[in-house]
Amino acid sequence: MSKVPKYLRAVPAATTKFREIEVLIISAQDLKNVKHVTQVRAYAVVYVEKDYHAARTSVDEHGGTNPMWNEVVKVKFREDLLENDVLAALNVDIYAHGLVREKPVGSARVLLCDVLKGGDAREPADNPIQCMTVQVWRPSGRPHGLLNLWVPPTGRFLIRRESLSFSVREEAEEDETVVAVKGGDEA
Known about the structure:
Layout: E1 18-29, E2 42-47, E3 54-56, E4 68-78, H1 81-84, E5 89-96, E6 103-111, H2 112-115, E7 130-137, E8 143-151, H3 168-186
Antiparallel strand pairs: 1-4, 1-8, 2-3, 2-5, 5-6, 7-8
């Protein structure tokens, strides 16, 4: 009997935990005009793992090759993905809406390690504002256009970096020490 590698084993759905990330898809600029007769009516599909969950923006009817969505999308992905795949990324695929078929315009990709910041939400230096402009790549592999997106600097999707900052236990011990010192001065 051959042994199946760990990365090929199926994870049972009942034990799979999911995380959610919010992203504001703002706009794109200078996209390739894939509709030669009519104006491009673009929309974006956002995902980390397309098999598990993908979110979609509405179609921009008037922007053409410079669409403006300004929509918040929420994307779910497996929690263990962050530990197992260092190249896991937030993917944005842009399509031109059509009556017959959807034409791919391009795609952009941001590594999750660049999007998911950690630390204390009260420390602005530890949670920089994540307004990003990312290169859009054509299906042929050539760069063509830019995508503007924003990830909130704080929120429920932050990863705590206990090892790089103080821990919750140390903070509680400091609070007890301060109370004990104040209580000793009053007596």
